[in-house]
């Protein structure tokens, strides 16, 4: 994104299926904008905000700007004159930028596949107004590719050239965790960076303090966890894959720590059976069948439910 900004683009898009962690990533980037939205001199170059584009048909500019105001907490009034609602959006961006002494807002729009071509025109009008204020709006259009039952990739081919030039000069796929190295890195974040309930207590240590203090880490179990994931896929005849969506990854991690490590007296390390039970109990298989677009066979439903119980 910073590269796109430095190249003078006004936006970019990202797409991916459900459960990959797109919403979590957007929230993290919004909350931590000061850590990445910086220039070569390490000074801030913008502020960030995030909104979720709702479903449903918006039949006018009044409805569109009302939704934008409401979702960004600019105003709670859903019925307001469109020019006033657009001015409120403009003032919201001016105020946020002015308070931070920057000239750019990065706006993440989740479920951006719901934005119509006409609504992109409204956003272009806002962008032009902000340019008159010597400000810049950079949109990050995050689209769920399977939301309407069809894949969304580089769908810019069907859009007007001025829309492509402004918002779609770069399109990136949003990927799940891929392979042992990425999974191990993600697990290590629970050992070091993810804290709860206090900032000085790592997530792993909170649930497995004695084992952690003796040197055990969640990341050290990466090989076992990946091996059990592969074995379970093979047992249920799913295609081979090392991809792991964040939706079930985080559920499995929480289960292993809170239901296994925290409850087992004298816990020292995970076992293969515990990892397999965690994968089953948290719905890993069900999501993988959906992602593979394979119906869960009736012959597997009862064994799956018994294992997860």
CATH topology of the largest domain: Rossmann fold
Please name the fourth-level CATH homologous superfamily of the largest domain. P-loop containing nucleotide triphosphate hydrolases
CATH class of the largest domain: Alpha Beta
Instruction: Based on the coordinates given, report the CATH architecture of the largest domain.
Output: 3-Layer(aba) Sandwich
In sequence order, what are the helices and strands, one letter per element?
Answer: HEHHEHHEHEHEEHHHHEHHHH
Number of strand segments = 7
What is the count of DSSP helices, taking H or I runs of 4+ residues?
15
| DSSP helix fraction | 40-55%
- Could you say which overall geometry the principal axes of the C-alpha atoms support? globular
Q: Largest sheet, described in full?
A: 5 strands, parallel
Calculate the mean pLDDT score and round it.
90
> How large is the radius of gyration?
23 Å
Query: Which strand order does the major sheet show?
Result: 2-3-4-1-5
- Estimated share of beta-strand residues: 5-15%
Residue runs with pLDDT of under 50 for 5 or more positions = 147-151, 303-309
Distance between the termini: 44 Å
Number of domains: 2
Which structural class fits the helix and strand makeup?
alpha/beta
Please describe what this structure looks like.
With 309 residues, this protein is an alpha/beta fold. It folds into 2 domains: 2-173, Rossmann fold (3-Layer(aba) Sandwich), CATH 3.40.50.300; 177-308, no CATH class. Helix content is 50%, strand content 11%. It has helices spanning 2-6, 22-31, 33-36, 61-71, 82-100, 117-132, 161-167, 179-192, 203-207, 209-213, 222-235, 246-261, 272-281, 284-291, 298-308; strands at residues 11-16, 47-52, 104-110, 136-144, 171-173, 177-178, 243-244. The strands form 2 sheets. The protein has a 5-stranded parallel sheet, sandwiched between helices. The chain has a two-stranded antiparallel sheet with strand order 6-7. Mean pLDDT is 90; it is low at 147-151 and 303-309.
């Amino acid at each position: 994104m910073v590269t796109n900004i430095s190249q003078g683009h006004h936006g970019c898009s990202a797409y991916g299926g459900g459960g990959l962690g797109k919403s979590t990533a957007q929230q993290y980037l919004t909350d931590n904008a000061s850590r990445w939205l910086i220039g070569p001199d390490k000074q801030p170059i913008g502020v960030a905000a995030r909104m979720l584009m709702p479903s449903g048909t918006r039949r006018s500019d009044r409805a569109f700007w009302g939704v934008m105001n409401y979702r960004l907490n600019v105003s709670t009034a859903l019925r307001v004159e469109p020019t006033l609602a657009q001015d409120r959006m403009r003032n919201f961006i001016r105020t946020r930028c002015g308070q931070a002494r920057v000239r750019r807002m990065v706006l993440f729009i989740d479920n951006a596949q719901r934005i119509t071509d006409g609504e992109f025109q409204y956003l272009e009008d806002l962008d032009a107004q902000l340019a008159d204020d010597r400000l810049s709006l950079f949109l990050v259009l995050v689209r769920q590719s399977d939301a309407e039952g069809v894949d969304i990739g580089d769908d810019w081919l069907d859009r007007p050239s001025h829309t492509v030039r402004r918002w779609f000069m770069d399109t990136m796929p949003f990927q799940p965790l891929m392979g042992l190295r990425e999974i191990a890195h993600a697990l290590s974040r629970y050992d070091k960076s993810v804290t709860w309930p206090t900032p000085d207590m790592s997530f792993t240590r909170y649930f497995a303090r004695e084992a952690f203090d003796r040197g055990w880490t969640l990341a050290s179990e990466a090989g076992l966890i990946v091996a059990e994931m592969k074995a379970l896929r093979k047992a249920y005849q799913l295609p081979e894959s090392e991809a792991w969506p964040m939706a079930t990854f985080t559920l499995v991690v929480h289960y292993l720590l809170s239901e296994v490590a925290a409850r087992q007296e004298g816990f020292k390390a995970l076992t293969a059976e515990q990892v397999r039970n965690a994968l089953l109990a948290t719905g890993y298989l069900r999501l993988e069948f959906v992602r593979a677009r394979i119906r869960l066979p009736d012959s597997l439903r009862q064994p799956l439910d018994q294992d997860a119980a």
